[in-house]
Fold these 3 entries.
Entry 1:
Amino acid sequence: MKKFIVFLVILVVFQHWNQIKNTFSPPPDFSAMHPEGVVLYSTSWCGYCKMTREFFKENKIAFVEYDIETSAEGKAQYNRLNGQGIPVVVIHGEVIGGYDPAEMQRLLQL
């Protein structure tokens, strides 16, 4: 019986690890780190990253970009955001996973 209870506790901890981790080590406030409010985590070869860059340039949006394959700082920030793919966009502290022009327009009030 004790082994079963220990197993259940381990299973629950494993399933909720990100929530537990963020409780004790909350993600950084990216809006304070980048006053312009727009950060792109990308790679050089990603087509959706290229489309995101073009979206920002077409709309004259200033942004900071980190290539997560070449920037240790960018990779560390991406990991703190629990990045699960690319691109990851942070706009005024809101995280967008993937290329989502409608959500970017909404957050940028375009």
Entry 2:
Amino acid sequence: MADLNIKKGHNIRISGVPSDELQKGLKPKTVAIQPTDFRTLRPKILVKEGDTVKIGSPLFHCKTHFNVFWPSPGAGTVSSIQFGPRRVVEKIIIELAETEESECHDSFRAAEIPTLGKEQILSALLKGNLIPFIRQRPFNKVVNPMDTPRDIFISGWNTAPLSVNLDVILRRRLPQFQAGINILKKLTTGSVHLSINENTVSDTLLEVKGADVHTLNGPHPVGNVGIQIHHIAPLKLNDLIWTVNAQDVVRIGTFFLTGKYDPTIFVTAGGPGVKTPTHIKTRMGVRLDALLSEKLNEGKQRIISGDVLTGKTATKNGYLGFYDSTISVIPEGGEREFMGMIKPGSSLTRYSLTNAFIGFGKKFFSFNTLQNGSERYMVPINAWEDALPMDILPNALYRAIHVEDIEEMEQLGIIECDEEDFALCSFACPSKIDVGGMIRQGLNLMEKEV
């Protein structure tokens, strides 16, 4: 039996679930890093158009934490630096060289890593430009490497729609994952928590040593690290927790074992708009057309970098987000159905989280972008509460954020929250309210107060 059994939540039955087959993406001509992917970042650009860079070369650093640099996902020539409104840096695009070189740093044998001190590990992470792969709670932003977290959390189970199956992509990667765990243990005074599906078959997740392993069972969002923190070791005021994606644990371990930054990433391309949904081996910052070439169905499709609940709209000429490992494609919506809410139907033809239609509800649905209405008055029918597996009152918290009552927000647990944990509430909301977006507004207000 699982250590943590979650009842609330919902697994969206969206068609186009990626198969466990692993393909190799086309070799991209360009890659990019997008500073807008990082919350509160004020980048100082270190390169200019025409400069030559290596894999892992620093491209920019943070003006507030000047020792935190962001690595280049490819080697070649900086072909373009694109600016948005008010001169905000949106993209740094690198045209890849035929033969790529990597920045080289000190490497360590696996047996040496447990003997390294915290200062030595932090120094190596800073030199290798790997700090951006570690994020903090609260506020879900890149960490300050000078802080010491209470605990570090890693989710070994993705439950978001169409997401990467970690059992597939972590195969035969135990040495790198183990090295990553040993490194992260040195950075905290507490524990490294690893949460896995109770039915996992991954040798990497089952055989790793040194982490506090927790088995999970339940629907999405049980795989979200924020839900796991809430149930395993809740975040309190003035606490600091670091989180790392499972693939980035491998990336950190690989760096220490080889002395080189490895931009490899495994992603999924799935959804109703994809002909052959599958897993793809590619690289960080890849241009999306290298992954979606000849894979899209006919008609107008919306491409999303990320999952359908939390991702951002992109184009085939766009680039994969820094923390994204899913590319979702869904058809653009058409006309609203006349009298749609009261038209008879069944759960075999219409989707409902509230059993509004008769049927067994086991079918996968070809969702599109149509919302069937715009934002309207709140309808308190427990739709948010049923989708949120946290001991938090989402309606009361929403109202406190709406009136900017900082004290009330704090008492209602805003510090434990992140918008990704409330994304399913937005999907379930009969009033079409962007609950996750409101949570982010509240967190921004709290961050200013702090």
Entry 3:
Amino acid sequence: MQAWHVHENGEPSEVMRLEEAEPPTPGDGQVLLKVRAANINFPDALLCRGQYQVRPPLPFTPGVEICGETEDGRRVIANPALPHGGFAEYAVADAAALLPAPDALDDAEAAALHIGYQTGWFGLHRRAALQAGETLLVHAAAGGVGSAAVQLGKAAGATVIGVVGGSGKVAVAKDLGCDVVIDRRAEDVVAAVKDATGGRGADVIYDPVGGEAYAQSTKVVAFEGRIVVVGFASGSIPSPGLNHALVKNYSILGLHWGLYNTKDPKLVRHCHERLTELAARGAIKPLVSERVPLGGAADAVQKVADGRTTGRVAVVLEGAA
């Protein structure tokens, strides 16, 4: 089979090599999956750089989210077990964690449903308890993680404000369903949010960016609002002022979705059932902006790493739907 291997840490386009390899052998409790499509996530770039919290032994194959096919022909969503990741013709995954791929989504869309949408669902519903009629602010609203949160927020009945970087992403965020879109490169985010909310601010803020985005969030969070810290795509980890959270009566909520897989895996399956229902009625649909063949994976991971994409980029293998 063909598989991308990382032999040394560095930028994805420089360290990922497409090589011939034997299909991986499943361990105890694992299954071999034929990869139909693999979604590219920012953690794939961090894995290549050696900056992710999980550091598989070298060489390894990145690709943490796939739509695959079991030996008996079932179409499933899985998180491959590293070092045998999804940017290959075959991967391995824990049998107990396989989830059925929704019929309403094609392979690339199904591959993009899991991590981003699970993170969004847990962040908005489990952690922040988003209510219909509330205002949700989503940073990086046209990106992979942000686009999922926008769709889930609209499905929950919230008014959604999206913050994006650049005029080209404004239209994408509007198409996703944002009620208000703010271009942080052309507008004052704080002033624009206050104007859009009549000075009240946002009830829930979804932040996968960190850095300046978090600083802006503290200035526009409503009374008894909730800031959900999802990640630090900016590369800057903020140091929250707890005195500020105290005087403004807002909550800072951390979200590490991966912990639910070990702490409460039943909730992960419950979430998938809800996402499948939403997909079936068209309330959510992963925005796959680009589909590339297996040979284009390294360049595609680099584009995601550089922030030059909207929605999701999927590696689609020959014969996939």
